[in-house]
Structure formats: structure tokens, C-alpha cells
User: Which sequence fits this backbone?
């Protein structure tokens, strides 16, 4: 499971890097015969792979529930903290793009896709925290209210990181 989560974070960063590379190649190459448009498929394929890895992380989290163990909250917090630069750059670029090209027929249709993609990347790490919370509830270490509150907050941007830090700080107490 750790390898899937690490692969997810790694590929999340590969998408914008390949997108910049592909746009540069497409702009510097003269004709479509040179494969400029085909190069643009690389980041799209990587995005699809990231979504599939997020789904695999969901399945892995469910399997960890069945086995009664899962990823450490501290490990998941590390993944979430590692994704902060991606989210900052992602929101800044798309926010500026939406403001500058607010009437563009290219940017507006892409925004829901990018938001869904970004949300999938967040959920790919949040599912492990939620699985751990369910295990804590099963062991009666947290209440149902705490499970619901922390579980809902794990599904919200920014709050997932805040709650992840709080839970990681409490992990020794919860695991005792």
C-alpha cells in the first residue's frame, strides 16, 4: 500500500512537468506532422493513471480495513504535506488562467475536469486516513462523532491537511 501511495504522489508531480514539456514541444515544433499534438497526450495519459492510482489507493484502504491494519497517520500526513506545493501551483495557475481567459472557450470547459482531477488526488491520500479512523472507531478509541467529523474534514481541501497533522500528533495516544 505504501508503494501505491508514493506512486500516486510521484505521478501527481509528473503531470504538470510533462504538461509544460508537451506545451513547449508543441509550440516549438512547426507542424502537426512532427507529432506536436501527440506529445500533448502524455500529460493526459498520466492524469488518467493518477486517477487509476487514486482508485487503487481506495481499494487498498478498503483491504486494509478488512485486515485490521492500514497506513500510519504520520505516513499519510507526510504524503499530504508533500502534495501542498502541487496544490498551491495548481490552484494559482488555474485561478489565474480562469481570470485572464474568463471568456475563453478553452479554459472554462477544462476547469471542472481539473477540479475533479485535483479532488481525486486529494482523496487518494485521504482514504487511508479515513480507513485508519474507522479502525480506531472499531476499537472504540474514538467516538462516532469524531469519526464522522474527521472523515468529512478529510474530504475537504486544506482541512484534510490540518486534520491530518492533528491526527498524526495524536497517533501515539490512539495507538496505545
Assistant:
Amino acid at each position: 500500500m505504501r508503494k501505491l501511495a508514493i506512486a500516486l504522489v510521484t505521478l501527481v508531480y509528473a503531470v504538470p512537468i510533462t504538461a509544460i514539456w508537451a506545451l513547449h514541444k508543441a509550440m516549438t515544433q512547426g507542424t502537426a506532422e512532427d507529432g506536436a499534438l501527440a506529445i500533448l497526450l502524455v500529460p493526459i495519459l498520466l492524469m488518467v493513471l493518477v486517477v487509476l492510482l487514486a482508485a487503487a489507493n481506495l481499494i487498498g484502504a478498503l483491504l486494509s480495513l478488512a485486515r485490521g491494519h492500514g497506513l500510519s497517520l504520520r505516513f499519510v500526513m507526510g504524503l499530504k504535506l508533500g502534495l501542498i506545493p502541487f496544490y498551491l501551483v495548481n490552484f494559482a495557475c488555474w485561478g489565474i488562467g480562469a481570470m485572464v481567459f474568463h471568456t475563453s472557450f478553452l479554459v472554462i470547459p477544462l476547469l471542472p475536469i481539473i477540479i475533479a482531477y485535483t479532488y481525486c488526488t486529494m482523496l487518494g491520500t485521504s482514504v487511508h486516513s479515513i480507513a485508519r479512523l474507522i479502525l480506531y472507531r472499531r476499537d472504540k478509541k474514538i467516538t462516532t462523532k469524531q469519526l464522522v467529523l474527521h472523515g468529512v474534514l478529510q474530504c475537504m481541501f486544506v482541512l484534510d491537511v490540518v486534520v491530518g497533522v492533528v491526527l498524526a500528533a495524536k497517533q501515539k495516544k490512539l495507538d496505545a
Remarks:
- The chain has one domain: 2-175.
- The first helix runs from residue 2 to 28.
